[in-house]
């Protein structure tokens, strides 16, 4: 028997909580004395700095926007990155001000897509030291997806059709390009016959470097140590995507 099992919090009863059945709270590991370096810290390579512009759907002088490498459950999941290797608190005033402008612009672009009710903006940063902001679109009408469990639902829901995903990427890229920069995502070519895959549909604007996460939750897994590193004590990687799960989605809206 575990000693004093932690009580399961109220949010497990919320309609937005994705799981049912018997839920138990995991025991917490002992805190480490020194945290391991994130990507782009210490001796670890920075994925963002190494990624070519072609891995993004839109690039500007100081900002880039990328997608996952395949469709996921939500209508749109995008990441805004600074070109410079800086974390949020290190941004100089120019970039800090532009982050606000870019955040508003990207939120509006994603919210303009068909079937999108809301866009949630998140910054975790446990996995990579290079600033990256998550933009997660909630499908319209799906009230159960409201609030802080949306990143979990992204991995639970069936992936949206690839053609729709590519159209959405192209629309966001074109929207951003209205203000400058270069759109790299293009709409899919017209498919005269039902394709078995879209691998041949023109450019592949959203391919990202090997090992890049394909969903918010996979990104959380990425926060763990390099697989090649010896770290026998790390059975579970850091959970980057846990978010402020105690926030009440009703109150947050
Ligand atoms: Zn970097």
UniProtKB/TrEMBL annotation:
Comp. bias (Acidic residues): 219-233
Segments of this protein annotated with the region Disordered: 1-22, 191-253
Positions with biased composition (Polar residues): 193-202
Source taxon at top rank: Bacteria
Protein name: Diadenosine tetraphosphate (Ap4A) hydrolase
């Amino acid at each position: 028997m575990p000693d004093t099992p932690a009580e399961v919090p109220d949010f497990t009863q919320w309609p937005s909580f994705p799981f049912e059945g018997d839920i138990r709270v995991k025991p917490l590991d002992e805190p480490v004395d020194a945290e391991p370096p994130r990507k782009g810290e210490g001796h670890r390579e920075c994925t963002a700095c190494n990624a070519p512009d072609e891995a993004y759907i839109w690039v500007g002088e100081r900002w880039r926007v990328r997608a996952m490498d395949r469709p996921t459950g939500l209508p749109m999941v995008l990441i805004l990155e600074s070109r410079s290797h800086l974390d949020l608190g290190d941004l100089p005033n120019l970039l800090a001000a532009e982050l606000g402008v870019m955040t508003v612009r990207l939120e509006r672009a994603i919210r303009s897509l068909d079937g999108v009710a809301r866009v949630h903006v998140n910054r975790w940063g446990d996995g990579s030291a290079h600033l990256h902001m998550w933009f997660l679109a909630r499908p319209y009408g799906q009230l159960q997806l409201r609030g802080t469990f949306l990143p979990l639902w992204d991995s639970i829901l069936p992936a949206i059709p690839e053609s729709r995903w590519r159209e959405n990427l192209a629309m966001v890229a074109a929207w951003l390009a209205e203000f400058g920069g270069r759109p790299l995502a293009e709409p899919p070519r017209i498919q005269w016959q039902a394709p078995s895959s879209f691998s041949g549909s023109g450019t592949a604007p959203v391919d990202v470097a090997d090992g890049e996460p394909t969903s918010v939750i996979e990104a959380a897994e990425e926060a763990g140590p390099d697989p090649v590193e010896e770290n026998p004590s790390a059975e579970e990687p850091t959970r980057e995507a846990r978010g402020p799960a105690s926030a009440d989605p009703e109150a947050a809206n």
